[in-house]
Amino acid sequence: xxxxxAILNFRMxxxxxxxxxxxxxxxxxxxxxxxxxxVTAIQLLHFGTFCVSGSGGTVVVxxxxxxxxxxGVSLISASPTAQPAIFEVKICPGRNVVITYDATAILTGxxxxxxxxxxxxxxxxxSGSTFTTTAxxxxxxxxxxxxxxxxxxxxxxxxxxxxxxxxxxxx
Length: 171
What we know:
This protein is mostly beta strands. Helices cover 13% and strands 47% of the residues. A hairpin with a 5-residue loop joins strand 2 and strand 3.
């Protein structure tokens, strides 16, 4: 009878050990915040209405929405009004974001001709600038981008359009 009692004791010990493993709480690291970055373009860069005479000049739209002209360019207060481009950046706090973009873009006119546009700066600085997010993961950081439009003498009148790329890299 002793072997049967030993087998029963062994089974009870085995059951106790199995129960012990089931009862031990497990610990894990908390989930890391999301690392993805979401960027949405919500407003186009627009230089407004202007006319050119003489030797040409420039139209500058600052990231703050201010508009100025140089040389033979005269600004006209008409609709549509000038405005900076606005991008909304969504990323969790404590992340660094590097903004990069090409220096220039070419705009094509509806009646022919091209204009050159210098891109930037942004409100965070020139291309290659870095900013750090500080709010929660649902906070949106708006980034405004201005530009300078070079208008040569004798530029063809019309509506000029083009695109530029801006890259937001998280570090």
